[in-house]
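User: What would this chain look like folded?
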Amino acid sequence: MDLNIAKKYAGRAKRSDAVQARTAEVGDERKDERFTVDLGACSRATRAFRIGACRAVSDAAYCRAVHYGFDAGSAQTARVMVEQTLADLFRHEYPEAKFTRGGLIAIDQSLHPGTEEYGYNELEAVGEAKLISPSATDIPLATIKTGRTKHTVQSGAIGFTWDRQEIRAADLQNQYSLAQEKGAAAREALDQLLDRLIPFGDADAELLGLLRAPGIMVRVAGSDWLNPATTADTIHQQFSGAVTAQGLLTKERELPNTAVMPFSIMRALQERYRENTDKTAMDMIRKDHPFITRWETSHQMEEAGFDGAPAIAIYRNERSRVRAQMPLGYTPVPEQVEGFVSKVAIEFRWGGVNLPRPKSVMLLQGITA
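Assistant: Here's the prediction, encoded as structure tokens.
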């Protein structure tokens, strides 16, 4: 139905005070930056596009409701319900989805959303500058070994639905809690998917993950850190051995600044004391590796080893080393109607994780029995 016609219908009936108040409240939320995707840098143009897309979806819901016989007040309720669900979807963050939140890896949104395949140069080794004569012709090269890596870009989505009775009930009771629940559930589903894709990728979809990419470094500790019989000194030596190996093999070019581990392992490091001292394994590790400034836990690390056992990711979290490609952030698409049910989908485009410097990532496994 034409939007102008729908507006004429709307002018013939007064909306309830509750609906008007909720409309104003949602309008204020749309101006809030929390209404946009919380992944990585988001340009002003991108932010405006997403807010415009949400408005278009809610306007379409209004027109559809008028078309199917709702009065103007109920039609406005349909619009507000859709807007409220989208607002809550973009507002919520799930603390347990730590990879998704962007702090453990940079999210790059520079690719065009229509990209289906892209590539980048993987730097396997670097050269060294040398002193030369003014007439020298053998200029040393900065990159002495590179490989070209190609990736695909895949689409992902989650949807939520409204039926006619839900809209009638919300209009009658002036309650919008169901919209909040649907928005929160949709955001949780999206965040959980990306929280798994970032570390592990998807082999079937040809998407690389941070810990499942060729060329990363892997080391086996060989002790059960959760066993009280394993001493703090043993844990310290095995962790330090992984960091030292990474530094030596890369000539200290890829010293890590981030360590992500299971919660159970973090607790073991904090509670395992060196004999006859008040120093824990974590105290000793932090002292020896001050360049690791971020220590995090993630439930994804409980099965991060190649054998499905707990493991620790030790890596240099810099955009030039590792980054995830997300050409299209969470974006609502136009409403679809099937019978009495209206469906709104949230789409995104995902290109996996890029590792221009794969040796900047160390996976330490073999830390449990």
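The chain has a mean pLDDT of 77. If you want, I can go into more detail on any region.
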